[in-house]
Design a protein that fits this description.
Distance between the termini: 6 Å
Helix content: over 70%
C-alpha cells in the first residue's frame, strides 16, 4: 500500500497554505491580543482564526497519519508539527481554555514561517522530489 498520492498531498498542503495566508491577511491589522478581545468584531475574528488553526492542525494530522509520521519530521523538522496537531486538539476539545495571548503569538510568529515552509513543501512535492517516498510500499 502506498503512503499517499502526490496529488492528494499537494491538495492538502495547498489547503494548509490557503488557511495560513487567510489568517495572515485577516489579522494583519491586529497589533495586540486586546484587538481580539475588546469588541464583538474582534471576537468574531478570533473565533474565525481559531477555526482556521484547527483546520490546519487537522490537515497536518491527516498527512502525518497517512505517512506514518515519517514525512514532516524527516524532511521538514523546522516546524513543530506535533505542536500544530496539539493546538488543533486544544481548540477542538478545550476551546474555552485557549490562551488568547498564545493564539496571538502563533498568528504573528509561527504562521508566517508555516506559510513559507508549506510553500516550499508544495514545490518539492509537485516537482517529484518525494515520489519514491510517496510510492513506498509497506
Amino acid at each position: 500500500m502506498r503512503y499517499m498520492s502526490k496529488e492528494i498531498l499537494a491538495d492538502q498542503l495547498a489547503f494548509i497554505k490557503e488557511q495560513a495566508e487567510f489568517i495572515q491577511d485577516t489579522t494583519s491589522e491586529i497589533t495586540g491580543v486586546n484587538d481580539f478581545l475588546s469588541s464583538q468584531s474582534g471576537m468574531v475574528l478570533y473565533n474565525s482564526t481559531c477555526m482556521c488553526l484547527q483546520t490546519i492542525g487537522e490537515t497536518v494530522k491527516k498527512i502525518d497519519e497517512s505517512t506514518k509520521g515519517n514525512f514532516f519530521s524527516t524532511y521538514y523538522p523546522e516546524i513543530p508539527w506535533k505542536s500544530v496537531i496539539g493546538l488543533r486538539n486544544v481548540i477542538s476539545h478545550e476551546y474555552q481554555d485557549t490562551d488568547h495571548g498564545e493564539i496571538f503569538n502563533i498568528i504573528k510568529l509561527d504562521i508566517p514561517k508555516l506559510t513559507l515552509v508549506v510553500g516550499t513543501i508544495i514545490n518539492d512535492v509537485t516537482s517529484g522530489r518525494y515520489d519514491d517516498f510517496l510510492n513506498k510500499k509497506e
